[in-house]
Every structure is written in C-alpha cells, then in structure tokens.
Automatic annotation (TrEMBL):
Protein name: Alpha-1,4 glucan phosphorylase
NCBIfam families reported for this sequence: P_ylase
A GO CC annotation given for this chain: cytoplasm
Enzyme class (EC, first level): transferase
Keywords: Carbohydrate metabolism, Glycogen metabolism, Glycosyltransferase, Phosphoprotein, Pyridoxal phosphate, Transferase
Length: 825
C-alpha cells in the first residue's frame, strides 16, 4: 500500500477507526439502538449505512462529472435485475472488506453473521435478470457511464419452500425491513397514461397532428441504487420505478366526494409495480404485465429526454448522448414510446423521430423457445395503448414497403416479417418490433447468435445482415469468485503473486505455469474440501440431509424447465441406485447429487420434476445399502445468495440442456470459475467454455444442435429408445412402479408418459451417451491429481467469461462508447 493511498483511505473515512465510529453512530442515530440491545437486523442496517455513506461520495462525484462532461451514456432497459445481496460486494468494491472485518471484530461482532443477515432483492427470475445485474457491475468497473432502468417490484421472485417434496411459493416481502441501499427521489416522477383514445388537432403551423387522451394516469417515482465498480471511482446508477396514484387524480375524486373511490384508485395504480411475473410460463397474456412494461419504459424514456434537455439541449442529438440496450423484448415498447414523445410532445416530424429512434436502440435476444417469444393481442393494445398501436401500424406500413421493394412479389416474406401476426387473433410481435427499431441485434453466445440469424430472424438477417452480432455472456468475478469463494481467491492471489486478476480475469492464465505444482494441488483440494464442508453444514441445517464432503458433489442449479433436462440427471441417479442395489458399484465413486432451482408457479411439469427429485431423495437417503455411495439433496430457494454457497462447493457442473435450446447459460461460467468440471452438451456458451478450457478438461456428451434438429425433422421416436435400451426402460419403469411414491403408480405418469411418447427435448436420445459420459467422470475423479489439474486449468482459462469482457465488446462494437474514468474527488 503506497503512502498516498493510505492517506486516501483515512481521508475518505476508510480507516478502521472511522468505520467503528460511524457504525456505532448509525446504530444509534438510524436504528435507535446501542450495542447491547441491537438485534442482528439492527447490526446489519448499521453496517449497510456505514458502507453506503462511503459510496455516496463517489456516486455524487460521478454524477457531477457525467453531467458536465456530456458523456455518452448507456441506458440498460430491463424488466429484471436479480441483484443479490449488496453489502459484501460493496465492501469488496470499496476495497475495505478486511478493514470492516477487523473493525467488527474489535467491536465484538461476527462479521459473517452480519453479512448473512441481508435479504436479497430478487427482482428477476433467473439468467436474464442476473445478467443485467452482472452487466451493471461491469459497466461501473469498465468506467462506462450508464443508467440501469427497471421496475421496483414490491414482491420479487417468490421464496420457494419444499413441503412433502412439492414446491410451495411464499411471497417475497423483501422491503419489509427497509432497504438501506436505495434513495427515493420523490421529485423524479413522471406521469404514465393508459387507455382512452387518440384525437387529431391542428398545431400552431396549421399541420394536422394526432395526440393521445389517456383515460387514466399514474405516476412513476424513481428509487436510485448506486452500483459500484471494482478498483474505480466510477459509480453508476440503477433507477427503478415505483407506481403511484397521481395526486391530481386522487384530488379530483376527493372533490366529488368519492373518498373511497380515490383510495381504491390509489391501490389500483400501485398494483402496477407490485409483483414480478415468471418468465418461463408459456404466454400469459396478462394485462397487468403489459401495463408494467409500458410503465417502466415510459418513465425511463421521459427521464432520458429530461436529462438530455437539461444537459445537452436539442433532441436532434439524442442518439449521440444515449444508447439504449433492450434486455429482451420486455422493454421493446420503448421504441414506440420514444416515437410518441418525439412526435406528439416535442413536435418532431416522422423522419426526424424515426432517425433518432432507430439510432438509439439495440436489442439482445435471450431465447429461441417459441413459447417465450412475446406477442400481445391487438385488441388489448387498442384498449390500453391506442396511440402506440397507431404508431406501430405506421412503423409497420413503412417497414413492409421497404421489404416489398427489396423482395419483389414475396408476400409470404412480408407476412412473416410483419409487426402484426395475422390469421387468427391479430397480435403484435414484440421481437419483430425490437429488430425493426434497433441498429444492432445480438444473441448471447456464438451458437445462439448463429441460430438467431439462421432461424428466428432469418428474414431480417437477409434484409439487414450488418445489424446482427454476437456478444457472449459473462459474469462478474467480484461476486462469484471474490465474495463467494474467498479461500480460492486468496489461493489464486498467493499463487500469482498479485490480485490484478480480479479486474483482468484473463490473468488467471498465469495459474497455468503452476498446473503441475504438487503443493498447489494439495492447497487447491483443501480449498474445495472446505467449501464442501461449509455447504454440507448448511444443507444439514436447512434440509436435515447429511452430505459427505469426501464424495463427488454433482450439482445442477438453475430454473426448472424441461429443456434444461433435470429429468435426464434423475434418470442417471436412478441408474446409479439400481446398479448399487444390484451390487455393481465397482466403477462408481461416492456422489452427492445436489439440485437447486425454482419452477414457474404455473408450470406443472417443472414442478413435477422437483417432486420426483425429492421423492427419489427420500428413498435413496433412507436406504442404508446405498448410503455409502450416494445421497440426493434438493437445496430449497435457489437464489443469488444460495448460489454463492453452491458454486464453490461443486466438483461437477451439470449443463445438460438439449443442444440448441439454452441460449447461453451463465451458471456454467460461475461453476467453472470456481473449479468445477462441466458435464455438458454442445449448447449455448458450453461450446465456448469447452474451447477455452480445452476439450480434455470438459466432459462432453450428446447430440449436436444440428443432429437434434435433423432427428426431429425426420421423425423422432422416443419409444424406440425406451424399448431397445433395457436399462433406460427399467429406470422409467421403476418410477412408474410406485417405489418413489409410496405405491402411487400414477403420480409421475405425466412425466414418464411424456418422455416415452413425445420427449420434446430428446432426453431418451441422449440418455445412453450421458450415462457413458458420467462413467468417464467417475473414472477421472478416482485420480485426484488428474482431477485437480483439470479443475485448475478450468479456472486458469475461464477469463474470457468475465462480464467485463462482455461489456467491453458491447461498448466497442454495439454502443460505440468509450470509458470515462472518474478522478477521485
Ligand atoms: C436466458 N433467457 C437464457 O435462457 C439463458 O440461456 C441465458 O444465459 C440468459 O437468458 C442470459 O442471457 C431468459 O431468461 C428468457 F427470459 F429470455 F427466457
């Protein structure tokens, strides 16, 4: 530590003494408690405020600099941010974790218990929302000026409890005890309209124009959360909108004597930001969801226009000041809303407005699954957003003329590309809208981006090939290595002789020179074992299930979905069980099979998979004949916090989706970063992870995307696999026998029947290859030196999958924005 930075720390209050004093002050002045009577939550709040005080200074400084320098700014629009707990990450990014720990110790406090106390904001479902959170952190780290816009859901993703083996959803009342990380901005508040009609009028130049008269208005109020970067003074802003009744509206009702009516309308307005919707239930078509999307998009676009007018000036340069990234199609209405604001509120003409709009937006696609592609019925649109429907028609008319001009006489193409799906109920295609309204479209892994061009957006890629890009996802090593796995991080820093890898993850490659170092191997194994012990302790207490840290920890943690094929994993478990029962354990290694993940509340099949896992667990864990060999455990309520317990403890990472279905995956990266080896298909980012870590350090199995598609086209007959593979048949039959369901032979029928008769995700086709691959896993695990070397090389070569790299690619190729480093104030 140089003397100037030591000085810096004391000057800005980063010293241990200052931390202790401020902690006690916050405990007293904010929580109204002194040390002796403080609850664990009081202690957490005092720690959070003490940390927040320290980041506010950086934040205000960043905001000031960005304002005066007119820095080009990225606006990330996302309906989800799965942030995870803030405290530990903010301490790491402030560089004061050790100081805070010592300060705590001197006050007689348990630092880890305080960190553990934080309830995470679960404002997202899974991969897409977590990606947005990683990107926000990396935007700050990479010094790119950015604002994240989203919704401040009062209830985030439900908490999952397991009762009698079934998933039970509990509301996530995350704001109950207050949120020390957000700053309410009552003055940053925008009106949002719904319903009503459009009318024409003559403007001051005698031009006929249209305007919207909404039937009712609500307000969106800003709540700001500062997002720190690592090793930088740059702090970006996450601005989430809360829906509130508009005062004037209330007042009107009050004046007419309808006090209760006014209160009711207030409640109704506030439902708009009440609850997060699941993302992997087939098309829900919920009106409230469309209202939510329009709500946050309208507030965000109005806010950007306000900022632009306040700093830069004329709206003609809007697209130079801002670039807006659409995180999937949920915010795609922003394209239309910007058009409306420019045309109706700011008097631009169509050509000007469209030129600005087209140069403002970029769109990321996150899934090819047809049931996840958003469409909204024209009728609903007409009722809720009549002006926007007009604008969509006009955008479409002009766009389809362009298509006709380019592809003479190809009306089938015009139909496919239209923003409106005709035939049957007319629907607005949000993905087509997003592509037409954007200057760049990207997929999230090489394979996915290729499939986007070849299938989903084939027509669009033929029209505008230059618009299509790939940016492979990444994850932040600060949260998923430094915070989640301090032991491994310390070992890496010690081995490399520096901690520069934390901001430049490619430098993990320096570990390669130590790949045969026996001392390092021993330390590496000790680190893994300690993490497994931690997880085992936690599991025992959370589920009562005992896991042996010496066994191979085989982990599948992600949302439950048929395409992710948790049932393929279960079939392997049942096969192991049967083999052991039949005395064929010679090629096995003792394994703990660990699952985590939520199922969308309305997704019956996914919930049945959870039940099956718990049912198999109950039998296996209570069978003394197999207990030396295997355990099955379901970790309830998989979220960011619980993920941080799992990744460090995994030996084997299950990434077994049907090739072509998982757009990227990001859990695959988090496991690998923590030294787990992957068993996986050639799907999503697995392909690139395997290339990076080396084929010899990755357990590959299964059909390729191409072969899977080919087989589907020529007629896939799962029952032929069932009939011809006696082990497969016996595994499925064992489920149907009632062994796992106290004699109920019908309980799992929907699942097994579906596998044998339809099997849309080709579980049976990949079953044999998966079993064989699992045998090579067991064999490798029996050679600890070899396994350790493979684990080490996975970490050494995973640098590319930092979200810093992803952000740099977006910045250079898509956003055309350069870093804007902030000097310390
Ligand atoms: C998810 N998509 C994909 O299923 C994952 O493969 C990917 O890693 C993440 O996005 C992040 O890109 C979704 O969650 C959604 F909503 F699009 F279905």
């Amino acid at each position: 530590m140089s003397s100037s930075s030591t000085h810096e720390r004391t000057r800005t209050g980063m010293s241990k003494t200052a931390l202790k004093q401020d902690f006690l002050d916050n405990l007293f002045y904010i929580q109204g408690r002194f040390r002796e009577v403080a609850t664990p939550h009081d202690l957490y709040m005092a720690a959070a405020f003490t940390t927040r005080d320290r980041l506010l200074k950086r934040w205000v400084n960043s905001a000031q600099v960005f304002k005066t320098s007119h820095a080009r700014t990225v606006c990330y629009l996302s309906a989800e941010y799965l942030l995870g707990p803030h405290l530990a990450c903010n301490l790491v990014n402030l560089g004061i974790t050790d100081t805070a720990r010592q300060a705590g110790a001197e006050l007689g406090l348990n630092f880890d218990a305080i960190v553990e106390e934080e309830e995470e904001p679960g404002l997202g479902n899974g991969g897409l929302g977590r990606l947005a959170a990683c990107f926000m952190e990396s935007l700050s780290t990479c010094q790119v000026p950015a604002i994240g816009y989203g919704i401040r859901y009062e209830f985030g993703i439900f908490d999952q409890a397991i009762e009698d083996g079934w998933q039970v959803e509990k509301t996530d009342n995350w704001l109950r005890n207050g949120n020390p990380w957000e700053i309410p901005r009552p003055k940053i508040c925008f009106p949002v309209g719904y319903g009503g009609h459009t009318e024409s009028y003559r403007d001051e130049h005698g031009q006929m124009r249209l305007r919207w008269q909404p039937a009712f208005m609500i307000n969106g109020m800003a709540y700001d959360t500062p997002i720190l970067g690592y090793g930088t003074e740059n702090v970006n802003l996450l601005r989430l909108w809360k829906a509130e009744a508009s005062e004037s509206f209330n007042f009107q009702a009050f004046n007419t004597g309808d006090y209760y009516g006014a209160v009711y309308s207030k409640i109704e307005a506030e439902t708009i930001s009440k609850v997060l919707y699941p993302n992997d239930e087939p098309e829900i078509g919920k009106e409230l969801r469309l209202k939510q999307q329009y709500f946050f998009v309208s507030c965000s676009m109005q806010d950007m226009i306000r900022l632009h007018l306040n700093t830069v000036g004329p709206l003609e340069s809007f697209a130079e000041k801002f670039v807006v990234q659409l995180n999937d199609t949920h915010p795609a209405l922003a394209v239309v809303e910007l058009m409306r604001l420019l045309l109706d509120d700011h008097g631009l003409n169509w050509e000007q407005a469209w030129d600005i709009t087209r140069h403002t937006f970029c769109y990321t696609n996150h899934t090819l699954l047809p049931e996840a592609l958003e469409t909204w019925s024209v009728a609903l649109f007409e009722r809720l957003l009549p002006r926007h429907l007009d604008l969509i028609y006009e955008i479409n008319r002009r766009f389809l003329d362009e298509v006709r001009m380019r592809f003479l006489g190809d009306e089938a193409r015009v139909w496919r590309m239209s923003l409106i799906a005709e035939g049957g109920e007319r629907r607005v295609r949000m993905a087509n809208l997003a592509v037409v309204g954007s200057q760049a479209v990207n997929g999230v892994a090489e394979l996915h981006s290729a499939l986007v061009k070849a299938t989903l957006f084939k027509d669009f890629a033929e029209l505008w090939p230059e618009r299509f890009h790939n940016v492979t996802n990444g994850v932040t090593p600060r949260r998923f290595m430094v915070v989640a796995n301090p032991r491994l991080s310390r070992l890496i820093t010690q081995t490399c002789g520096h901690d520069a890898w934390i901001r430049d993850l490619e430098r993990l490659r320096e570990l390669e020179t130590h790949q045969d170092d026996a001392g390092l191997h021993a330390d590496w194994r000790a680190v893994k074992l300690a993490a497994k012990q931690d997880l085992a302790t936690w599991m025992q207490q959370a589920t009562g299930i005992h896991l042996d840290p010496a066994s191979l920890f085989d982990v599948q943690a992600k949302r439950f979905h048929e395409y992710k094929r948790q049932h393929l994993n279960i079939l392997h478990i049942i096969r192991c069980y049967q083999r052991i029962k039949q005395g064929e354990s010679q090629n096995l290694v003792p394994r703990a099979f660990i699952f985590g993940g939520k199922a969308a509340p309305g997704y019956f099949m996914a919930k049945l998979m959870i039940k099956l896992i718990n049912a198999v667990a109950e039998v296996v864990n209570n069978d003394p004949q197999v207990n030396g060999w295997m355990r099955v455990a379901f970790l309830p309520n998989f979220n960011v916090k619980n993920g941080q317990r799992l990744y460090p403890a995994a030996d084997l990472s299950e990434q077994i989706s049907l090739a072509g279905k998982e757009a990227s995956g990001t859990g695959n990266m988090k496991f690998s970063m923590n030294g787990a080896l992957t068993i996986g298909t050639l799907d999503g980012a697995n392909v690139e992870i395997r290339e990076a870590v080396g084929a010899e350090n990755f357990f590959l199995f299964g059909l390729t995307a191409e072969a899977a598609l080919q087989q589907q086209l020529t007629g896939y007959r799962p029952w032929e696999y069932y009939q011809s593979d006696i082990e497969l048949k016996s595994d499925i039959d064992l489920i149907n026998s009632g062994l796992f369901s106290h004699g109920d032979t019908q309980l799992f029928r929907p699942l097994t029947d579906n596998l044998v008769n339809h099997d849309p995700f080709m579980v049976l086709a990949d079953y044999r290859a998966y079993l064989e691959c699992q045998q090579t896993v067991s064999a490798a695990y029996q050679d600890p030196e070899r396994w350790t070397r493979m684990s080490l090389l996975n970490v050494a070569r995973i640098g590319r999958f930092s979200s810093d790299r992803a952000i740099r690619e977006y910045a250079e190729h898509i956003w055309k924005v350069t870093p804007n480093p902030i000097e310390a104030a």
